[in-house]
Structure formats: structure tokens, C-alpha cells
Amino acid sequence: MFFSKRLSYIAVGICLFGITLFAEKASAQINVSPLVIETQPQEGQTETFITLTNTTSTPSRVRIYAEQFTYESDNGFQPLPSSPDNQKPYLQFSPREFTLKSGGSRQVRVVSRFPSNLPAGKYRVVIFHETLSGVQDFDGNHVSLVAPIGVTLYFNQGNTLSNSTIQNSASKQK
Known about the structure:
This protein has one helix spanning 2-22; strands at 30-33, 36-39, 45-54, 60-67, 69-72, 76-79, 91-94, 97-100, 105-113, 121-131, 135-136, 142-143, 151-157. It is mostly beta strands. It has a single domain (27-157), classed as Immunoglobulin-like (Sandwich), CATH 2.60.40. The strands form four sheets. It has a five-stranded mixed sheet with strand order 2-13-10-4-8, with no helix packed on it. The N and C termini lie far apart (59 Å). 11% of the residues are buried.
């Protein structure tokens, strides 16, 4: 028992040493800003910009896309396959696909054109980017890590009132 427990500690130690010896620093390859955009359509249209910056030493091919989502306190971010508040058909990106030079930045224009019969309400979508070129491992296999960081885009169409309520409040006396 003592020997097998000690052997497992040694094995874990060797694995951790190997990981730290051969692992590269983990960091975001593409930075994006801003992370949250709130906008009010004017005459059924909005226009905003997001900026992507390549922090690596190699060029990256990037694609922009949007997803519907909800956020639940228990489950966190959840993509929605469909939603009555779907904004995706109304979004246009310019450019949608592009190459970012090493250390370079690029602005992406995000335009929303809503139909005139769109009901008043709050609409939301998250805009993601994905890197289209992967890294090759020692065997020539393409490897990529997908860790989506998105820009959340909120629209208030028409006269909408916030349905937020205060659930708790506290103050400190000095």
C-alpha cells in the first residue's frame, strides 16, 4: 500500500514536471474589444465597431460569426439554437473573414438592419471570432484550441423599460 501510494506521487510529479518543462505559455492569440456593446437602433439600423488584435508572432486567418445566447445563474452562458429574439439574420460584418498580421489590429464593422415590423423589445447576440489556421504538432496533425471570447451586443428596439429588479441591497455606516 505504502509503495503504490508513493509510486503514484512520483508519477504525478514526473507528469507535472514534464508539463511545465515542455508547455508553452497559455495566452489569448486574438484580443477583442470592447467586450460589451449596448445600442439603440436609429431608423431601424445600428452601426458599431469591434477591434481584434493578433498577439502572436505569426499571421492568423480569422472568421467572425454570431450566436444567440442566454445566461442562467446556475448554468452560466448557454447558446440557443433558436430564439424569438434572434438577431442573427439582421447582422452584417465587414469584413467577415480576414488575415491579421503578427501584432496587427483590425476593426470589424457590425451593422444591424431591423425590419420595420420588429416588435419593441430587448435583443441580444454574442459575436465570436475563430482562428481558421491551426498549429501543427510533431506528427503534422493540425491542432487548435478553441476558447471563445465574444462581444455581447445588446439592442433596445423601441420604447423598452428595464425588467430588472433589485433583489438585495445593503449599506455600510462609516
